[in-house]
Design a protein that fits this description.
- By secondary structure, the protein is an alpha+beta fold.
- It folds into five domains: 86 residues, DNA Primase, Chain A; 134 residues, Alpha-Beta Complex (DNA primase DNAg catalytic core, N-terminal domain), CATH 3.90.980; 123 residues, 3-Layer(aba) Sandwich (Dna Topoisomerase Vi A Subunit, Chain: A, domain 2), CATH 3.40.1360; 59 residues, no CATH class; 136 residues, DNAb Helicase, Chain A, CATH 1.10.860.10.
- The protein contains 25 helices and 17 strands.
- Helix 3 packs across helix 4, helix 11 crosses helix 14 and helix 13 packs antiparallel against helix 15.
- The chain is flat, with a radius of gyration of 30 Å.
- About 2% of the residues have low confidence.
Length: 589
């Protein structure tokens, strides 16, 4: 791997057991020699995400994502390879060596570093303008919002002047190029006006990542201008779908959960009131990227969205996203006020603390919200409500969890629990809802085309070689790496055979040797062929023999088709291969 010693990479991988690492992100249940859980990379109700401690690999039979521990961390955290290595090295207590980047990587790292430098200078500039003689309008705004000097300083709040090129001129005087200012998103360029500011006449909210770097800005206009709120555009360092405002502080809170809000002022007001575990998404709905980021630091989220219909809908959308990331959610009731900022100003922090204690289970909140759509005093209205609730209860694939919710709802709404249970199970059967621990079924009878069937045969053979090392001596007599089809298969088989000769099969290391994510996923699939655990030993041997015969026959056919009639040596080899195949068909492996 360019830039770092391969031996160090392998040491990092070997000292981070993949089951231990992935268990820190999602719930895994042992099933046979492997572990299974719900895939974090696509929505599913049946656990098809497999983690193999023996192969030190993961593979999802649903979406096809797979790889070793590096691939998982890269995919889950949206990390580069080197960021994943660094994170896992730290986890294992290993010190990262100094990295020598290639020219392209060095250029990219330098650009990111320079953008962060520009952002830091811009944040200082905005803060100075707030404190200066031209910042009175912004200071008055923050005074009306009852923010203390300490809070303003803590969040680095500032002001962009009414002049539309003041920041641009300031940054140019500091020596920054137009190209860099454009990349930073702080300045805009056109033929008429040249360089000018993205933000002007706005109170400014610096946005920091979890490490404390200023990655972007949010601005609220002073006066009646539009848009009222505006964020930095996407840059090399700023992705609003993967960052949260205030998380850099909230992650250090000792409260143990995260209060998730909708806006900057909600977060700032809560922090000022002592609730330092508050954060907010950056003008977007909650995304899977947000949820994965939160899951690094918290296992419970208290949703504190606006109490209007839009806030209720946002909470509905957020709950399943959080659940997929392994995060439980509760909902804080803000009524009679719209948001936490208004609530704190009117009722104070003690009352807000009470509301936290009364936070409602997210699913029960959902049921309470839909209750308003029905007239429960009318038999038909109550019947329709029960139908709606029953449909929603099918989201729980674990039977015990589902029954617990059924009992709670039945008690609250005076419904016969057994009747509700039968209703839910009926809907579940109709829609194919299965228990979380139902094994993944592989349809052996499903028709597949010959090419796909041959690829599966190759996958199956590679998988068997890794899972049962005793097979190698028998297999290599008949199948060589050159008998595989496809450059990638031949390459992978050659690497595996080389490891086998040394008695050290290591598929996870083979994955690391490939730099392209697409190839890494394909290699992971090669080592996760469908192995039928319910086979008898005799059936396994029969299946292995049939696989070898199929591959050898295909290799002979290919060589015969491509043979030059004048190639006597090649012809002799084909004859020998056919004899070996005939002998193989009459032998037991």
């Amino acid at each position: 791997m360019p830039g770092i010693n391969n031996d160090f990479i392998e040491e990092v991988r070997s000292r981070n057991d993949i089951v231990d690492v992935i268990s820190g992100y999602i719930k895994l249940t042992r099933r046979g020699s492997n572990y299974f859980g719900l895939c974090p990379f696509h929505g599913e109700k049946t656990a098809s995400f497999s983690v193999s401690p023996g192969k030190q690999m993961f593979y999802c039979f649903g979406c096809g994502k797979g790889g070793n521990v590096f691939n998982f961390v890269m995919e889950y955290e949206n990390f580069t390879f080197m960021e994943a290595v660094g994170t896992l090295a730290e986890r294992a207590g290993l010190e990262m060596p100094k990295i020598e980047y290639d020219e392209k990587a060095k250029k990219e790292a330098d650009l990111k570093s320079r953008i962060l430098e520009v952002n830091k200078d811009a944040a200082n500039y905005f803060f100075m303008q707030l404190k200066g003689k031209n910042g009175e309008i912004a200071r008055n705004y923050f005074d009306k919002r009852q923010l203390s000097e300490e809070t303003i300083k803590k969040f680095g709040l500032g002001y962009s002047l009414q002049y539309s090129d003041d920041l641009y001129r300031y940054l140019k005087e500091k020596g920054y190029s137009d190209e860099l200012l454009k990349e930073s998103g702080l300045c805009v360029f056109d033929e008429k006006r040249g360089g000018h500011d993205k933000f002007w006449n706005r109170v400014m909210f610096p946005i920091l990542d979890v490490t404390g770097h200023v990655i972007g800005f949010g601005g609220r206009v002073m006066g009646e201008g539009m848009p009222k709120y505006m964020n930095s555009p996407e840059t090399k360092v700023f992705d609003k779908s993967r960052n949260l405002y205030g998380l850099n502080v909230a992650r250090q809170s000792r409260r143990g959960n995260l209060i998730l809000c909708e806006g900057y002022m909600d977060v700032i007001s809560l922090h000022q009131a002592g609730f330092t575990n508050a954060a907010a998404s950056l003008g977007t709905a909650l995304t899977a990227g947000h949820a994965r980021l939160i899951s690094r630091y918290f296992k419970e989220v208290l949703l504190c969205y606006d109490s209007d219909n839009a806030g209720t809908k946002a909470a509905f959308r957020a709950v399943p996203i959080l659940k997929e990331a392994g995060i439980s959610a509760k909902v804080i009731n803000m009524k009679p006020y719209k948001d936490p900022d208004e609530f704190i100003k009117n009722l104070g922090s003690e009352e807000f603390e009470k509301r936290i204690g009364e936070a409602q289970n997210s699913f029960l909140f959902e049921i309470s919200a839909i209750e308003r759509n029905y007239d429960l005093s009318d038999p038909k209205g109550k019947t329709d409500f029960i139908e709606d609730a029953a449909n929603r209860l099918t989201v729980f694939t674990d039977e015990i969890e589902r029954n617990n919710y059924i009992d709670t709802i039945a008690q609250k709404y005076s419904i016969d629990a057994e009747a509700l249970k039968r209703k839910v199970n009926s809907i579940g059967l109709r829609e194919g809802i299965v228990a979380d621990n139902t094994p993944v079924k592989i349809d052996r009878q499903k028709s597949i085309n010959p090419e796909e069937g041959f690829m599966r045969s190759q996958n199956l053979l590679l998988t068997w070689l890794v899972e049962d090392r005793t097979l190698y001596e028998s297999v290599k007599k008949y199948i060589l790496p050159s008998d595989f089809e496809g450059e990638l298969y031949i390459d992978v088989a050659g690497r595996l055979y080389g490891q086998m000769e040394k008695g050290e099969p290591n598929p996870a290391k083979i994955i690391t040797d490939f730099t392209e994510n697409e190839n890494q996923g394909k290699v992971a699939e090669m080592f996760n062929g469908a192995v039928f655990d319910d086979m008898t030993e005799a059936d396994r041997k029969k299946a292995l023999k049939e696989t070898i015969v199929k591959m050898k026959q295909r290799a002979i056919d290919k060589k015969t088709k491509e043979l030059d009639p004048a190639d006597i040596k090649g012809l002799t080899q084909i004859i020998e291969d056919k004899k070996a195949l005939q002998k193989l068909e009459s032998l037991a492996i």
